[in-house]
C-alpha cells in the first residue's frame, strides 16, 4: 500500500512538473518574443527614426547646402556678371572716348582711301604704303560709271565721269558725319607719300590753328599768295586761296557737315567746287607747302576718270614708292 502511494505521488509530481514546464514554454517565449519584438520595433523605430531624422537632416542639410551653394553661385554669378558688365561698360567707355594711335592715323581720327574695287593694283600699292609707314587705312569703295544704283541717289547735274568722283568724295563726307569722326584724312588711291610723314605732321600740328576745317596735305598748284600761318623749317602752312586736286586733304567733323550742305548743287568737279567755297571764305582751310603727299602719275597707271596728257605733280624729298621699288614711267 505504501509502495502504491509512493508511485502515485511520483506520478503526480511528474505530471505537475510537466504541466509547469508546459506553462513556462507557453508564457515565457511569448514574453521573450514580445520583448524581442519590442526591442526590434524599438530598434527598428529608432533606426527608422534615426534614418528619417538623418535623411531629413541630410535633406535639410543638402537643401541648406544647395540653397547656400545656389545663393553662393548666384552671388558669384551675379558678381561675375556685374564685374563682366562693368568691364564691358568700362571697355565700351574707353573705346568710345579714347582716340586711335596718333601715329597710325597721322594725328587724325581716321584715314580713308578712296579706291575703285576693280583697281586691285592701286589697292595693293596703297597697302604697301600703309604697311611700310605703319599707318591704318580704311579702303572706301569709289563709285564707277557702272554704279547707276548709287549714282541715281544723287541729283547732281554734271557729266558722268565728273559725277563718279564727286559722289565718291561726297559719300566719304557722309561716312565721317555718320561715324562722328572728329577729323579725317581723305586720300585717293594714286598717291605717293613722304617717308617722314609722321614727323612732318607732328610739326605741322604745332602751327595749325585750332579752328581749322580743311587742311591740304597735297595740291596741284602753288597757292602761296595766302597768309603765312607758320613755318616748321621744312614745310610752311598758308591760308588756302586756290587749292586744286583732292588726292590728299583733311576735314574736321564740322567741316564735313558744312560740305554736305554746301555741295548739293555742283557745276564743276569736286576739287574746283571746294576751291570755289574756300575762295568765298566758306571754310577755314589751310595748305601745306611743299606737298607732303603727291599724285603718282605714270603711263602704266592711268586714271579711270580723266584721260588727259601729262599731269601736274611734285617730286617728294623721300618717296615711299621709290623706297618700295616702284618706278613711274614718265610721260613724254
From TrEMBL:
The Glycosyl transferase family domain, residue ranges: 109-217
Pfam families reported for this sequence: Glyco_transf_25
Residue numbers spanned by region Disordered: 36-98
Stored CDD domains: Glyco_transf_25
The keyword RNA-binding is assigned to this record: no
UniProt keyword Transferase, yes or no: yes
Biased composition (Low complexity): 36-97
GO MF term (any one): transferase activity
Keywords: Glycosyltransferase, Transferase
Family in the record: Belongs to the glycosyltransferase 25 family.
Protein name per Swiss-Prot or TrEMBL: 4556_t:CDS:1
Gene source species: Acaulospora morrowiae
Amino acid at each position: 500500500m505504501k509502495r502504491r502511494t509512493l508511485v502515485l505521488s511520483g506520478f503526480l509530481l511528474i505530471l505537475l512538473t510537466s504541466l509547469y514546464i508546459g506553462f513556462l514554454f507557453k508564457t515565457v517565449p511569448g514574453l521573450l518574443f514580445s520583448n524581442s519584438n519590442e526591442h526590434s520595433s524599438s530598434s527598428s523605430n529608432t533606426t527608422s527614426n534615426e534614418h528619417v531624422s538623418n535623411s531629413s537632416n541630410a535633406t535639410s542639410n543638402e537643401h541648406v547646402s544647395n540653397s547656400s551653394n545656389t545663393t553662393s553661385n548666384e552671388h558669384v554669378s551675379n558678381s561675375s556678371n556685374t564685374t563682366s558688365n562693368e568691364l564691358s561698360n568700362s571697355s565700351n567707355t574707353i573705346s568710345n572716348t579714347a582716340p586711335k594711335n596718333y601715329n597710325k592715323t597721322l594725328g587724325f581720327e581716321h584715314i580713308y582711301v578712296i579706291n575703285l574695287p576693280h583697281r586691285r593694283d592701286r589697292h595693293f600699292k596703297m597697302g604697301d604704303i600703309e604697311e611700310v609707314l605703319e599707318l591704318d587705312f580704311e579702303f572706301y569703295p569709289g563709285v564707277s560709271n557702272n554704279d547707276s544704283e548709287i549714282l541715281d541717289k544723287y541729283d547732281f547735274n554734271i557729266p558722268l565721269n565728273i559725277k563718279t568722283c564727286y559722289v565718291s568724295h561726297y559719300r566719304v563726307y557722309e561716312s565721317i558725319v555718320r561715324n562722328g569722326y572728329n577729323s579725317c584724312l581723305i586720300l585717293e588711291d594714286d598717291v605717293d607719300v613722304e617717308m617722314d610723314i609722321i614727323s612732318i605732321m607732328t610739326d605741322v600740328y604745332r602751327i595749325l590753328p585750332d579752328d581749322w576745317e580743311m587742311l591740304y596735305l597735297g595740291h596741284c598748284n602753288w597757292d602761296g599768295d595766302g597768309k603765312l600761318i607758320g613755318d616748321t623749317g621744312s614745310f610752311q602752312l598758308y591760308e588756302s586761296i586756290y587749292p586744286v586736286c583732292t588726292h590728299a586733304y583733311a576735314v574736321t567733323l564740322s567741316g564735313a557737315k558744312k560740305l554736305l550742305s554746301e555741295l548739293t548743287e555742283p557745276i564743276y568737279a569736286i576739287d574746283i567746287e571746294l576751291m570755289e567755297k574756300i575762295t568765298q571764305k566758306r571754310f577755314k582751310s589751310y595748305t601745306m607747302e611743299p606737298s607732303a603727299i603727291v599724285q603718282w602719275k605714270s603711263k602704266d597707271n592711268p586714271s579711270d576718270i580723266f584721260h588727259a596728257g601729262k599731269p601736274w605733280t611734285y617730286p617728294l624729298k623721300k618717296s615711299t614708292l621709290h623706297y618700295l621699288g616702284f618706278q613711274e614711267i614718265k610721260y613724254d
